[in-house]
Amino acid sequence: MTRYQVSRKIELQPAYVLHSREYRDTSLLVDILTLDVGLLRVVARGVRGAKSNRRALLQPLQPLLVTLIGRGELLTLSAVEAAAPVFQLHGERLFSVLYINEILTRLLQPGQSHPEIYRLYQRSLVSLLRDPQIECALRRFEYHLLLELGYGPDLLNDAQRGDPICPDEFYVFDPESGLSRCHEVLENPKANRFTGQQIIDMNVFLNADNQQSFDKQLLSTSKRFMRQALRPLLGTKPLNSRQLFVSPAPPAVFSLPPDSDNG
C-alpha cells in the first residue's frame, strides 16, 4: 500500500535565519528558528539568481515572517518578508550571535516547538545590542537554554545531600549529577570545583534581568561552569564559531562553514 505524505503550509511564521549554505545551482538550504515550529531546514529556491531580491533578507539578525510549503521534514520557502528592522551588531557582538546560532543548530531537534527558546533568542539579541558586557548575554542564554531543554543545573542545592549551597564549602560539578560538596583534593581542581559563594553569586547573575555590570572573575567562573554544563550535549566536535573570537581579522562573510551543520 502506497503511503502519501500530506502537504502542509505554514503561513507568516515569525523566524530568524541561523545558518545557510548553497544548494544546487541557484538555491540555499537555510536553518531557521521559528516561533511555533522550532528549528526547521528549508529550501530557498532560486534566491541566488540574479533576479532574486530575497537573498538579502535571508541573513542572521533579520526578523522575518516566512511562509513554508511542502511534505516531510524539508519544506520550501514560499514567501519571506522583513518583520522588523535588522539588528545592527558588529565585531564580537556579531560573532556572539553566530555562536548562539551554532549552539541552537546543534542542540535543537528539527520540528519540535520551542516558543520560549524563540523568545529567549530574541531577548539575547536585544541584550547583545544593549548590554555593555557581551559575556552577560552569552552566559544567560546558555543557562536558560539548558533550563528550557530540561538540562538546567540546580544552583541552589547540594545534589547529594539536598542541603542549600553553603558559601564556605567547596563543590564539584558534574553535568549529569549536579553540584556536590567536595572534601578531597582534585587532580585538576580549577576545572570543575567551585566555592559555594561562587555558585550563589553565579545564580544571582544568571537569573538577573537587568544590565548592571558584573566583575570579570564572576564572568570567568560562569563561563567555566557553563562550558562544563554544555559539554555532554555538544559532544567532542569543536564549535566553529568559537574560532571567530581568536581570529586576527573578521571573516569576509558572516556565516559558519558548511561542516557546522547538525551532528
Describe the fold and architecture.
This protein has helices spanning 91-107, 115-130, 134-149, 189-192, 196-207, 216-234; strands at residues 8-23, 27-34, 38-44, 64-70, 75-82, 170-174, 178-181, 193-195. The model is unreliable at 248-263 (pLDDT under 50). A hairpin with a 3-residue loop joins strand 2 (27-34) and strand 3. Helix 1 (91-107) packs antiparallel against helix 2, helix 2 (115-130) packs antiparallel against helix 3 (134-149) and helix 5 (196-207) packs across helix 6 (216-234). It starts with 7 loop residues before the first strand and ends in a 29-residue tail after the last helix. The chain has two domains: 9-86, Nucleic acid-binding proteins (OB fold (Dihydrolipoamide Acetyltransferase, E2P), Beta Barrel), CATH 2.40.50; 91-245, Recombination protein O, C-terminal domain (de novo design (two linked rop proteins)). The chain is α+β, with helices and mostly antiparallel strands and 263 residues long. The strands form two sheets. A five-stranded mixed barrel has the order 1-2-3-5-4. Strands 7-6-8 form a three-stranded antiparallel sheet.
What tags apply to this protein structure?
OB fold (Dihydrolipoamide Acetyltransferase, E2P); 8 strands; 263 residues; 2 domains; three-stranded antiparallel beta sheet; alpha+beta; five-stranded mixed barrel; elongated; de novo design (two linked rop proteins); disordered C terminus; 6 helices
